[in-house]
Amino acid sequence: MNATKTLSVTDVLELARVIDACTREVPVMWLAESGATLTGVMRHLYSGSNRHGTDVRELTVRISGITEWEIPMQDVLRLIRNGEMALDYRA
Asked: pLDDT tens-digit profile of 20-49?
């Protein structure tokens, strides 16, 4: 990830929504590449490297359901932008 990339207001708002969803552990629903609809609970963000100061856009999102999913933040953001993931779909 290019750490010098400027974040737009839209980028910040999208990241904030995902961080908030992880903090509140909300249910999520998304469309898998196979076409299946998957559901789970967004749990937390983590970095496999445990580096301090890791760019939030490089983190991975853990989602728990019948199985555990680890989805890179960039993929979560893409799914949301494409309307293929709903955060807290109960609301």
From this structure: 999 999 999 999 989 999 999 999 888 866
Question: Can you give the pTM of this predicted structure?
Answer: 0.84
Total structural domains within the chain: 1
Q: Is residue 67 part of a domain?
A: yes
Distance CA(10)–CA(3), nearest Å, equals: 17
Nearest-angstrom CA–CA distance, 86 and 31: 9
Which pair of structure tokens corresponds to residue 89?
Answer: 């779909």
Six-digit token pair at 23?
A: 């903090």
Domain of residue 79 covers: 9-87
> CA-CA distance, 13 to 67, in Å (whole number)?
28
pLDDT, position 64? 96
